[in-house]
Amino acid sequence: MEKRLDDVTISRAITESFFQQFLSCLKADVVIAGAGPSGLICAYYLARAGLKVNVLERQLRVGGGMPGGGMMFNRITVQEEAKPIFEELDISLAVYQEGLYVADALETVSTLCSRTIRAGAMIFNLISVEDVMMQQERVCGVVINWSATVWSKLHVDPLSMAAKVVVDATGHDAEICRIVERKTGPRLRTPSGTVVGEKSMWAQVGEQSLVENTREVFPGLLVCGMAANAVMGAPRMGAIFGGMFLSGRKAAELILSQLKPGEK
């Protein structure tokens, strides 16, 4: 007789499958805070290379600022340098003028999310990073809690997730770098030793500096995407996202130069 589908079975299927995956991810090669464009791209290239990668997103959805495009016009612009990444991911681009392309923001987000998961990365939404783990003056993981717990300001103790490398891809707020700054003082690898803070919008300079600012800013902690410009004090860019993709790829390359798949 065919087994009946009931409410409890549905609940068990969801709960068991989630926690099996969650338990398997408490130790990772890389934990990326933020599932915006740079974080997802970084995860895609790392997972494709064989590293164990967790992406933690505090919001319900992934994509950072991409879904809203520019001022809720759900289109984004991309410059020539990032075109090969879009082509690799099979994301449609339309020529606007020489060297500048337009992409559908929702197609970009959904395709990038799907390709990242299919590459082997684990994405956990509605999980917030509230602190870092640190041993021997090196970041070695993150302290996590349900976002709903954080938003509700409930006193609920967190859990931990170990990693060989942590990536701050939290955007304008550079949240992980600010946590490290609070805990260690002015020891970040920036001109001031602290999070400098982003400057006003200047897309051309912001895009040029974004990849350059993608780097390790504390032992075990890299920064990419808009967080990189915020940490180093460079301008913001608006709804042009090529630099975000290039920054995520560079962060992955830097990590892969340090870590090899299968290393303990």
Question: How would you sum up this structure in a few lines?
Answer:
The protein is of the alpha/beta class. It has helices spanning 7-24, 37-48, 83-89, 105-119, 147-152, 175-184, 203-212, 226-232, 242-256; strands spanning 27-33, 53-57, 75-79, 94-97, 100-104, 122-125, 127-135, 138-146, 159-168, 215-218, 221-223.
What does this protein structure show overall?
There is one protein chain. This protein has 264 residues and is an alpha/beta fold. The chain has a single domain (7-256), classed as FAD/NAD(P)-binding domain (3-Layer(bba) Sandwich). It has helices at residues 7-24, 37-48, 83-89, 105-119, 147-152, 175-184, 203-212, 226-232, 242-256, and strands spanning 27-33, 53-57, 75-79, 94-97, 100-104, 122-125, 127-135, 138-146, 159-168, 215-218, 221-223. Strands 1, 2, 6, 7, 8, 9, 10 and 11 form an 8-stranded mixed sheet that branches. Helix 2 (37-48) packs parallel to helix 4 (105-119) and helix 2 (37-48) runs parallel beside helix 9. The protein is globular.
Radius of gyration: 19 Å
Q: Roughly what percent helix?
A: 25-40%
Strand content: 15-25%
What order do the SSEs take from the amino end to the carboxyl end, as H and E? HEHEEHEEHEEEHEHHEEHH
Helices, by number, come to 9
The CATH class assignment is Alpha Beta
**Pairing-aware structural class of the strands and helices?**
alpha/beta
Low-confidence stretches: none
What overall geometry do the principal axes of the alpha carbons give? globular
Biggest sheet layout: 8 strands, mixed
Mean pLDDT: 96
Per CATH, the architecture is: 3-Layer(bba) Sandwich
Tell me the CATH superfamily. FAD/NAD(P)-binding domain
Total count of domains: 1
Total strands: 11
What CATH calls the topology is FAD/NAD(P)-binding domain
Q: For the terminal residues, how far apart are their CA atoms?
A: 48 Å
